[in-house]
Design brief:
single chain, five-stranded mixed β-sheet, alpha/beta, Nucleotidyltransferase, domain 5, 14 helices, about 475 residues, globular
């Protein structure tokens, strides 16, 4: 394991692009990053600049790589965000619509919701790319254009062509998730011409080789591409039976491999396509977790880290339901409204901060519970997991052990593992044997107290959904 070869993994996320170099022992030996801005020009609109994203990739790589030998590149990306670019020039047409964007109205398609879910595996919701595609095409034209997710755009910038990785394609709501091909029925329903879409290929390619990514030499192969949440699952050795992970970030993703023939209330997606071996997964998406702390911190003129440090030991009955653009998993209610309830004259910043932290733990547990499979230990990763208070709160709220990855860049590491295996740096057996350091949190709260807190949270969610309170299992 003394090879000088390195795998470069690029993780293009909502708020930043990160790059890491992984050596043959599996260790991260260099890091780089570059921030990416988010624009909200109108209520519900969330946009990013595609050229800025490409520049951030170049900057993060330049910040990471010096004179190390890079034998292969892996690419992990944010998923449902969508953009349009000119096929001839490669120049973006209009902004990239973020996965958080809520400008598109799915209400006219409600009568087709069951058909959409049966084919795509996804509930009808503006978070997914299909409705964004229609909006972009109507706003910026259909002639000579390419539609693509972030991975598709970056692959075009890196090596040309118009391709998309299968797991990312599965998040567009235009893919037949079982056939792994664009669905003619969904394309017609959403009004998306097939010729604007990329070719769907496996997570292991073939992809175009790198160009314009100094100091990485042109011609360096790209051996793996994955959605960020899928990549994190792979880094957790998520191919093993019964593994359930939660990735905490701007939003959160709870994911576990599963049989596509099994009925589920969660999303059915493609985790990865390993050279024709397709692994399906069940997933629940939460729109606002880390973003909730950022919003409240901005409102109160502080930082998310400072806000979390000031959180009280109890919210004193205050609940924050972060339905800023409706609620996603497990409710999938885009009419839900954000609210803070339980306020009294005694409520202060520490109680609000605690309510914000609790909203993260509650939403994650609601989604894990919707898996309807035994989960003794929840595998977690992502920036917010560095907050030990949140991790203990998650264990107490869930009544399950929480195993926190001590590797911060898990979304980058997973795609590095897959790219390295394709490159011959590791065998599958060696991937199995790699060290995955974790920190364990055991639940301490009494079951009766936990159940009372969950019941109060569900009452607050019912208010946000403007519905009569029901038991969680009924949803």
């Amino acid at each position: 394991m003394s090879s000088p070869d390195h795998i470069l993994a690029i993780d293009q996320g909502t708020s930043a692009t990160k790059a890491v170099l992984v050596d043959a022992s599996g260790a991260i030996v260099a890091r780089g990053s570059a921030p990416v801005a988010l624009s909200t020009p109108r209520p519900g609109w969330v946009e990013q600049d595609a050229d800025e994203i490409w520049a951030s990739v170049q900057a993060a790589v330049a910040d990471c790589v010096t004179d190390q030998r890079v034998v292969a590149v892996g690419l992990s990306t944010q998923r449902e965000s969508l953009l349009l670019w000119d096929r001839a020039t490669g120049e973006p047409r209009g902004p990239m619509l973020s996965w958080q964007d809520q400008r598109t109205d799915c209400a006219p398609l409600r009568e087709h919701a069951e058909e959409v879910r049966a084919l795509s595996g996804l509930p009808l919701d503006p978070m997914f790319s299909a409705a964004k595609a229609r909006w972009l095409l109507d706003a910026y034209g259909r002639d000579g254009v390419c539609l693509g997710t972030v991975d598709s755009f970056l692959l075009h910038k890196l090596g040309g062509g118009h391709v998309i990785e299968a797991g990312n394609a599965a998040r567009t709501q235009l893919l037949d998730v079982r056939r792994r091909d664009w669905s003619p029925e969904l394309l017609e329903l959403f009004g998306v011409p097939r010729e604007t879409l990329p070719e769907v290929i496996a997570s292991t390619g073939p992809f175009p080789a790198v160009r314009g990514l100094a100091p990485v030499p042109d011609g360096t192969p790209i051996y793996a591409v994955m959605g960020d949440s899928h990549s994190a699952l792979f880094a957790h050795a998520g191919w093993r039976p019964g593994q359930v992970k939660a990735t905490y970030g701007t939003g959160s993703s709870i994911m576990s491999l599963g049989d596509p023939a099994t009925p589920t209330n969660l999303c059915l997606t493609i985790a990865w396509d390993d050279g024709g071996e397709v692994a399906h997964a069940f997933e629940g998406n939460i729109r606002s977790t880390g973003a909730t702390l950022t919003w409240l911190a901005t409102l109160l003129g502080t930082t998310p880290a400072a806000l979390a440090e000031q959180a009280a030991d109890s919210s004193a009955g205050v609940h924050l339901v972060p339905a800023f653009g409706g609620l996603a998993a497990p409710w999938w209610d885009d009419e839900a409204v954000g609210l803070i309830s339980g306020l009294t004259f005694a409520t202060r910043l520490p109680q609000l901060a605690r309510a914000a932290l609790e909203s993260i733990a509650f939403q994650v547990e609601d989604t894990v519970a919707a898996l309807e499979t035994p989960v003794d230990t929840l595998l977690v990763d992502g920036g917010p997991t560095a907050n030990r208070t949140l991790m203990q709160l998650q264990a107490d709220t869930s009544g399950r052990a929480v195993a926190r990855s001590l590797t911060a860049e898990l979304s980058a590491l997973g795609v590095a593992h897959l790219a390295g295996r394709v490159a011959g740096v590791w065998t599958q057996a060696q991937l199995e044997a790699l060290d995955r350091p974790r920190e364990l949190y055991e639940p301490r709260e009494a079951p009766a107290s936990r159940e009372a807190r969950l019941a109060a949270w569900h009452a607050a969610v019912a208010r946000a959904r403007q519905k009569e309170e029901k038991h969680h299992a009924a949803f």
